[in-house]
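dumping this here so i dont lose it
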């Protein structure tokens, strides 16, 4: 495994991030990698940049963006005010999966949560992503909750 670098994403990383989001059986049907990118990607990215509660990171290997994830700080009242770190949109280039890059990113995210004073890390994963579920369980995550979504579109 080449030495990976995790850094804050910049606007110039957006095309690579969108390609990663589209690089699987679920994302291929909902993401649009054509350039120029759809305005919604740029709007959302700028909103994330302006927020103190969320950041998008990229994993770079040999100068190439090969992974991404979004971290969200969640102050919560439950569990006596335990602060949580949410992990969203985790992706590693399909040609590089099962080589340790995803584990590197998630362990880095866990350490980041700890450094930020979080007492819990949480994430959700689509029910169809069974390989991802095994991966998260191997890293110590428990499948403790049932998730629900309601589309408003």
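and the seq i came up w/
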């Amino acid at each position: 495994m080449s030495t990976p670098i995790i850094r804050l994403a910049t606007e110039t990383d957006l095309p690579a991030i969108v390609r990663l989001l589209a690089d699987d059986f679920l994302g291929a049907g909902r993401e649009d990698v054509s350039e120029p990118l759809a305005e919604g990607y740029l709007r959302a990215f700028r909103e994330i940049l302006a927020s103190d509660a969320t950041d998008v990171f990229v994993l770079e290997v040999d100068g190439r963006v090969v992974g991404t994830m979004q971290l969200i700080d969640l102050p919560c009242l439950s569990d006596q005010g335990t602060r949580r770190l949410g992990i969203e949109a985790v992706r590693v280039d399909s040609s590089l999966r099962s080589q340790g890059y995803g584990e590197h990113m998630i362990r880095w995210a866990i350490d980041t949560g700890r450094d930020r004073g979080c007492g819990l890390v949480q994430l959700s994963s689509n029910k169809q992503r069974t390989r991802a579920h095994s991966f998260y369980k191997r890293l110590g995550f428990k499948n403790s909750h049932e998730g629900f979504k309601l589309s408003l579109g």
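DSSP finds five helices and five strands in the chain.
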